[in-house]
Amino acid sequence: TISGYLETSLITGNQSTNMNYGATKAFGTENQIKFSIAGKLPNGWAYDGYQTLETDETTSGFIDRMIQLKPSNDVTLFYSFDGVKGSELARTLTPYLTDRQTDVVGSSSISGITEFIDVTSGGHTIGFDINNLGPNGTLSYAYNPNLDSGSQAGSDRAAATNNSSTNSRSGWGVGYKVEPVKGFTIGAGLTKIDNKVSASYEDATGKSLGFTYAQAPFAVGYQRILNEGTKAGATTTIEDKSDYISGTFALSKEVSIGAGYIKLTRTIAGVEQADDIKSKLATVAYNLGPAVFSLNYIQDTNTASSASGAPVNGRDFNLTKAKVKITY
Fold first, then answer.
1. Is 206:120 a contact under the CB 8 Å cutoff?
2. Which residue among 42, 56, 95, 118 has the highest number of C-beta atoms inside a 10 angstrom radius?
3. Which of 199, 215, 256, 232 is nearest to 123 (CA)?
4. Nearest to 236 by CA among 276, 266, 212
């Protein structure tokens, strides 16, 4: 089957300090075509897979992909690039109407907000899922042998292209989600990354615990995230403790609203920073079936200039993102 989407958005904003970001205007598009297959092997195993062709502000070409083999309904073996597997399973616990804060703001060099450390985002992983482990429960394990390998890393040989001939980091992640009560889902995730580029680089650990409660017409979620170190590696010890709260509400069949809040406390070299980074999100969306019109407003305060930088009091900005998305 073939599916996909086309979206275009206009982003405007203002800033309280000279950040060179928030006062600009951005207008552009993102396109995705997804090819999916599914079937049965001669030995009775089920299989499925997909490959996407995508363009956005940083990538173009063959991006997300997945190959899954299913010996039974309870076990799935997989390879993926940029798939939601392993510990990233827990990241989906906080519900959003259209975009997350990090989707609107983008790079952590703008806000300093770090997401839950995983090995699957932008990485090649292999692993397995154990399904039906409790009510609607799934345990997922993903291993990334080389976090340096990019999306175009080839299968024929080790080459400098997409850094497949280097191997400064490897890691694994495990995540679990279960629905003990109808509508109430809890989950947890754990990531471990071995930074081998230098003995002075801190290994990275990510821990996450959260829940979602969804009963039409609303859904709410909370997540506590603790990141120790950074995914890219750093010589200075960094610890980020984050609280994520979000919710959505359907006012009608066509109109929905949503909100999100993030509070991040950063500790650098054992010293907790005086100011917390805070991010507030408000969203309204108008759904016309395959076409969705949405408006996101974000206000970030005391932001940092990088994923390892200190929050700066008064380094504030806001962004407004108007988007039209058509799926097919």
1. no
2. 118
3. 232
4. 266
Quote the CA–CA distance of 23 and 145 in Å, as a whole number.
40
Written as one letter, the residue type at 27 is: F
Q: pLDDT tens digits for 95-143?
A: 999 998 888 887 666 788 989 999 999 899 999 999 999 999 999 999 9
Taking only the tens place, the pLDDT of each residue in 201-229 is 788 999 999 999 999 999 999 999 999 98
Residue 274 makes CB contacts below 8 A (sequence gap 6+) with: 311, 313
**Residue type at position 222:** Y
Query: What b/e readout covers 25-45, taking b as 16+ CB neighbours within 10 angstroms?
Result: eeeeebebebeeeeeeeeeee
- Comparing CA positions, the residue from 64, 75, 50, 172 lying closest to residue 128 is 75
Tokens linked to 107: 């790079």
- CA 202, 203, 209, 215 torsion: positive or negative? positive
- Contact 134/127 with Cβ under 8 angstroms? no
Q: Before 135, cis peptide (omega within 30)?
A: no
- Bridge partners of 250, per DSSP, are 256
Structure tokens at 325: 């998305």
CA distances from 18 to 12, 14, 25, 27, 307 (A): 16, 10, 15, 21, 18
Entry pTM: 0.90
